[in-house]
From TrEMBL, chain A:
A GO cellular component annotation in the UniProt record: gas vesicle
Biological-process GO terms, alphabetical: gas vesicle organization
Protein name: Gas vesicle protein
Family from the record: Belongs to the gas vesicle GvpF/GvpL family.
UniProtKB/TrEMBL annotation, chain B:
GO cellular component, one term: gas vesicle
Stretches for region Disordered: 1-22, 110-144
The protein's name in its UniProt record: Gas vesicle structural protein
Keyword Transcription annotated: no
GO MF term list: structural molecule activity
Organism lineage string: Bacteria, Bacillati, Actinomycetota, Actinomycetes, Kitasatosporales
Subcellular location per the Swiss-Prot or TrEMBL entry: Gas vesicle
InterPro entries per the UniProt record, alphabetical: Gas-vesicle_GvpA-like (IPR000638), GvpA (IPR050530), GvpA-like_CS (IPR018493)
Skewed-composition ranges (Polar residues): 13-22
Pfam family, one: Gas_vesicle
Lineage top rank: taxon: Bacteria
Length: 268, 144
């Protein structure tokens, strides 16, 4: 068993002076300094990595920590921060959270083993960014819309209730139609600007903090030159529609599109 | 872990109180769905990343997607997971379930031995050896 720190890997990128300089200023998880791990053989690939304490990142400890949402949030934000900082200077392949090696030599071996796959994927993503587009219904399900008509006092309570429910339903249906219209517009915008789309799960749980009900959650791979146009047009996709709004996030590093051609199943 | 993860959602540290103090404008759900569910998957030396991350992702999906939705899809294993549900503690233990099943098997064996072993001649005598179907008590874990 090694006593020293383990190596946490955030991303793989091609080496550049700008990237090397950028990583010097970045703090990794647990505040550790970020460095680049070059491969053993002559190649342009590097891994963006930092030392992490063995006590926190050994199997058992890591498994326990990951169940702690506060710890997980800190790790996820730190991981994302490093990916974001390096993606500003270079195309990067973000690695799945908590990819940890015994030391830098093991990282080198990984870079060598998967050199061609990693390089090929980097080349495909070169010059692209990821943008997230979420569509929300403003009417939260289960709550009475403010614009619902006041109950007619001449109606019996039962009829008034039913009529009220009907009115609520109508408003929701209208908002759904508006959302479909917005989705259609975004698809048209994507056809002009984006090269790929990835669907994410709709955000509905307690972590979904946005106002309204999320009805679609997509990521688009967009050439960097089109990112501003895509963002502006997507932001306006709900213009003239009532009951829906759109949330555009990014640019992100291409998380949703960074996948190696072959499923990686072999353990080292 | 006796504390369901959902119980701690209300006490999330604010960004500035995070131990690593990393500023980021992105919201947590957007980050988690990317860093946990996306990105390059390479097996590291610390063997946590594949199975455990997947399990964790499923748990977080339940926070990001609603529990009701998961139930609609027939996913309810967290009710058996002690780290996620206090109800799991009330569920019968494996030993208990084994004991019950053994008793049932014994009862069935005794039952089956009662009628004479001869073949039914008219072909109407009901066979007693058919096993009662026991509903599956929990879906497969990796099913989500």
């Amino acid at each position: 068993m090694t006593a020293g720190p383990l190596t946490y890997v955030y991303a793989v990128a091609r080496h550049s002076v700008a990237l090397a300089q950028a990583t010097h200023a970045v703090e990794g998880v647990t505040g550790s300094p970020v460095h680049l791990v070059p491969p053993a053989r002559d190649s342009a690939l590097v891994a963006v990595a930092s030392p992490v304490p063995e006590d926190d990142f050994r199997e058992a400890a890591l498994r326990r920590h990951l169940e702690d949402l506060a710890w997980l949030e800190a790790l996820a934000r730190a991981h994302h921060h490093v990916v974001e900082a390096t993606a500003a200077h270079s195309t990067v392949l973000p690695l799945r959270l908590a990819t940890v090696y015994l030391d830098d030599d093991r990282v080198r071996a990984m870079l060598d083993d998967r050199h061609d796959l990693l390089l090929g994927t980097l080349e495909q993503l070169d010059g692209h960014v990821e943008l997230g587009v979420k569509i929300y219904l403003d009417v939260a399900s289960g709550t009475a819309p403010a614009s619902a008509p006041a109950p007619d006092p001449t109606l019996s309570p039962g009829r008034a209730y039913l009529r009220h429910r009907r009115a609520e339903q109508d408003i929701r249906d209208a908002a759904r139609q508006a959302a479909e219209e917005a989705a259609g517009r975004i698809e048209a915008i994507a056809r002009t600007h984006a090269v790929q789309r990835a669907r994410h799960r709709i955000q509905e749980g307690e972590l979904a903090t946005g106002p309204g009900t999320n009805v679609s959650n997509d990521a688009y791979l967009v050439p960097a030159a089109h990112a501003d146009a895509f963002r502006i047009e997507a932001t306006h996709a709900t213009d003239g529609l009532t009951g829906v709004h759109v949330d555009v996030t990014g640019p992100w590093a291409p998380y949703s599109f960074a996948t190696l051609p072959d499923p990686d199943e072999d353990a080292p | 872990m006796t504390d369901p993860i959902a119980n701690r959602l209300g006490s999330l540290p604010s960004r500035s109180a995070s131990p690593y103090n990393q500023p980021s404008s992105a919201n947590l759900a957007d980050i988690l769905e990317r860093v946990l569910d996306k990105g390059i998957v390479i097996a590291g030396d610390i063997q946590i990343n594949l199975l455990d991350i997947e399990l964790l992702t499923i748990k977080l999906r339940l926070l990001i997607a609603s529990v009701d939705k998961a139930k609609e899809m027939g996913i309810d294993w967290w009710e058996h997971d002690p780290s996620l549900s206090s109800r799991a503690h009330a569920a019968p233990s494996l030993e208990e379930e084994n004991r019950r099943l053994r008793e049932q098997i014994e009862a069935l064996r005794a039952d089956a031995a009662l009628p004479p072993v001869e073949e039914p001649e008219e072909g109407v005598a009901p066979r007693r050896t058919a096993r009662p179907k026991r509903p599956a008590t929990r879906p497969a874990r990796g099913d989500a």
